[in-house]
Amino acid sequence: MDVSLVIPLLNERESLPELHERIVRVMASEGLSYEIIFIDDGSTDGSWDCISGLSAADPCVHGIRFRRNYGKSAALYCGFEKAQGDVVVTMDADLQDAPEEIPEMRRMIVEEGYDLVSGWKKHRKDNAITKNLPSKLYNATARRITGIKLHDMNCGLKIYRRDVVKSIEVYGEMHRYIPYLAKNAGFSKIGEKAVHHEKRKYGKSKFGMDRFVNGFLDLQSLWFLSTFGKKPMHFFGTSGLVMFLAGFIMTVWIIVEKLIQQNHYLKYRAVTDQPLFYLALLAVILGTVLFLAGLLGEMISRSSSERNRYNIKDEI
After folding, report:
1. What is the Cα 77 distance to its own chain's centre?
2. Would strands 87-90 and 158-161 be described as parallel, antiparallel, or unpaired?
3. Which residues pair with 209 in a beta bridge?
4. Mapped to the 3 state alphabet, what secondary structure does the chain carry?
5. CB-based contacts of 179, cutoff 8 Å, min separation 6
6. Region for residue 306 given its phi and psi (left: phi exceeds 0; alpha: psi -120 to 50; beta: otherwise)
7. What is the pLDDT of residues 257-300, one digit of tens each?
């Protein structure tokens, strides 16, 4: 099979027939075999009935229905597990992503050797204050931390080699950072293509402003886990040693200074009367705690079933 389209949705009944029609038209014009996997993430507007009707009329349409809303990452995870195409396309169901962009993006995968191609909504049709400006700040931060030079990390329209989606685990709200997950899994050839962005035709957006705060926190978590997930002692141990040594040096300095002043019959304060002593004591305690946290993290990591899981590219 040439293409698998994985489409998560929540209350998008009105847009599904038109989206299906456009996808079928594009696939037919390119002569591609395909499957469409709709993942109903707990819709309450009759979206599943629409998916059932489309599946009855078109054997290439498949559906997965959640009992409740689990989020986009959960939907993509289940869709990736089911996908069988040589390339896998993800897109939103709200008609803001154009299926007509798929052939060129697929060509970049098949002919130019990209592992992943992300869409770039270069000319967004969203509100400039609530969507455009926060999105630019978010993407600038993501580029800085991940090292992946994408203008639109969170664009719903992306296309992957099948190996990519079978090698990563999307969980929580990490769907925003699939390119980073792919990079950490060893798929480094990541490109992008400017795509047409359409105004929402039906319904309303399911995402609020809180997604930017949550997205930043998720990015920090993902960066930390990818950097120190299998070697927690490198972070906690180093931080603990630095703090312990700083506290120890301050304590020694205070005591030596007091002894020198006492030896020269100069006025001095008791060690316990100096605020710096308590800061030094706090640094020593926190350093010890951090070091022990690193040691515990290392013990947990060593017993993890994922510790020696590696993505092997070739074997002879």
Report:
1. 12
2. antiparallel
3. none
4. CCEEEEEEECCCCCCHHHHHHHHHHHHHHHCCCEEEEEEECCCCCCHHHHHHHHHHHCCCEEEEECCCCCCHHHHHHHHHHHCCCCEEEECCCCCCECHHHHHHHHHHHHCCCCCEEEEECCCCCCCHHHHHHHHHHHHHHHHHHHCCCCCCCCCCCEEEEHHHHHHCCCCCCHHHHHHHHHHHCCCCCEEEEECCECCCCCCCCCCCCHHHHHHHHHHHHHHHHHHHCCCHHHHHHHHHHHHHHHHHHHHHHHHHHHHHHHHCCCCCCCHHHCHHHHHHHHHHHHHHHHHHHHHHHHHHHHCCCCCCCCCCCCCC
5. 116, 118, 146, 148, 150, 153, 158, 190
6. alpha
7. 888 887 877 777 777 778 888 899 999 999 999 888 888 877 77
Residue 24 has pLDDT above 70, yes or no: yes
Confidence of residue 3 (pLDDT cuts 50, 70, 90): very high
234, 228 contact by CB (below 8 A): yes
- Amino acid sitting at position 87: V
Rounded to 10 degrees, the C-alpha dihedral 221/225/231/234 comes to -30
Question: Per residue in 99-125, pLDDT tens?
Answer: 999 999 999 999 999 999 999 987 776
